[in-house]
Amino acid sequence: xxxxxxxxxxxxxxxxxxxxxxxxxxxxxxxxxxxxxxxxxxxxxxxxxxxxxxxxxxxxxxxxxxxxxxxxxxxxxxxxxxxxxxxxxxxxxxxxxxxxxxxxxxxxxxxxxxxxxxxxxxxxxxxxxxxxxxxxxxxxxxxxxxxxxxxxxxxxxxxxxxxxxxxxxxxxxxxxxxxxxxxxxxxxxxxxxxxxxxxxxxxxxxxxxxxxxxxxxxxxxxxxxxxxxxxxxxxxxxxxxxxxxxxxxxxxxxxxxxxxxxxxxxxxxxxxxxxxxxxxxxxxxxxxxxxxxxxxxxxxxxxxxxxxxxxxxxxxxxxxxxxxxxxxxxxxxxxxxxxxxxxxxxxxxxxxxxxxxxxxxxxxxxxxxxxxxxxxxxxxxxxxxxxxxxxxxxxxxxxxxxxxxxxxxxxxxxxxxxxxxxx
Length: 423
Ligand code: PGA
Ligand code: ZN
Description:
The chain has helices at 68-82, 89-99, 110-127, 132-136, 177-197, 218-231, 268-281, 296-305, 322-331, 341-344, 347-359, 377-384, 398-413, and strands at residues 3-12, 18-26, 31-35, 142-144, 146-153, 166-170, 241-245, 257-259, 264-266, 284-288, 311-314, 336-339, 363-367, 388-393, 416-418. The chain has 423 residues and is α/β, with parallel strands linked by helices. The protein has two domains: 3-129, Enolase-like, domain 1; 142-418, TIM Barrel, CATH 3.20.20. The strands form four sheets. It has an eight-stranded mixed barrel, surrounded by six helices. Strands 1-2-3 form a three-stranded antiparallel sheet, with helices on one face. The N and C termini lie far apart (44 Å).
C-alpha cells in the first residue's frame, strides 16, 4: 500500500493553543491523522518546536504561537517526498532525517516531523490490519502500563500554587488497569471534597487536570493527598503510593533552588538533603526532575544516597535524547526515564531511546504533555512498547481521558497483563 496524500494543518490543543496535525491518506482510500502535543515546562534540550514568532507566517490572533511555518514545511517539503512511497515507518522517518539532519529537528520543526511520523505509524499499522499497539507488539499478551496520575498540580501548570509541579499517585496495589483507574477517580474526588471543606478554591483546574490547591510546603501537599487516599479506604504504601514531579529547572537560578511558597533558598548540597528527607519521610516511590536539567552532579550525588528502590526519573534532564540518556547511564545520574515523543521528534528514534533505557535497566514512563489533544496514540505506544508506566496528567478533560479510555479498551478487548514495576 502506498501513500497517496499528506496534508499538514493547524488545530487547537487543550490550552486552546495552535498545534500541528497531519493527515496521511493511503491508496486504499483510508486517512490517518495525528496531532502533536506541546509542553509548558519544556526542557532546554528538547527537540525544537517551531512557532511563528514574528516572520511571514505569524498570525495576528495567536500571540506568536501559531504553527503555520511547521505546517508549511509538511506541505511544501515533506509531502512531495513521501507521496507514492510505500507506507512504512522506517521509510518515513529516514526521509524526515534526510530532509532535516539536525539533531533537534530545528529546520522542519519537531512538531512537523512528529506529526508526520505518527500519522505514518498509525497508517502503517492500518496497512497491516493492526491497531497501533499491535503494530509494535503483534503477538501474545499486551502489557498495560501502571498509571502515574496527578492529584495536585502547581508550578508552571497552575500559577505556582505549589513550588513543585505535581503530587501524583501510583495505584501499585491494583490488580488491573480498570481497578487502578477507579481508585484514582475516587481519590481525586475525595481530594476535591477535602479541599473545598478546608476552604480552598477547588474549582481551579490545572493544565493537566490536577487540582490547583495551594500549599506552602510539599510535605503539607503530600499529607493532604495521603488523607484523601485513606478516606476512600485504601492503604497508603501497599495500595497507593505517592510520586512527585519537582520540575526543579523552573526554580533553579544556576546557583540556588528557590522555593517561593516555602520562602526558602537552598544551595545544591542543601537541596539534595531536602529532597532526600522528603523521599525518606513520606511514602514516595518516584521522584521526577529533583534537580535542574544541567545540574548533573546533584543527580549523581543523590543517586548514591537516595533510598533503595526509589524511582529517580529524568524528564528535563534527559529530554528523550539518546546522547543525554547515555551520559546519565555512564554517570549514574538517574534510574528511570520519561519518554515524550515530541521531545525527540520521531516515533522510531523515540522507541530507540526507550530500548536503550530498558537495556540499561532504567524504568520507562511514556508521558503526555501539558498541552494535549483528543488523540489516544500515546496509550497504544506505551502498551505496544511495554513501557511499564504511563503518565497522562489527571482524570479530568477528554484530552487526558481519551488515553485512559483507550487503555480501558485495550484491557477489555485484548489479552493483557497489568504491569507493576514496583513489586
Ligand atoms: P510539560 O510538563 O508538558 O509542560 O513539559 C509535563 C512534565 O513536566 O512532566
Ligand atoms: Zn516533568
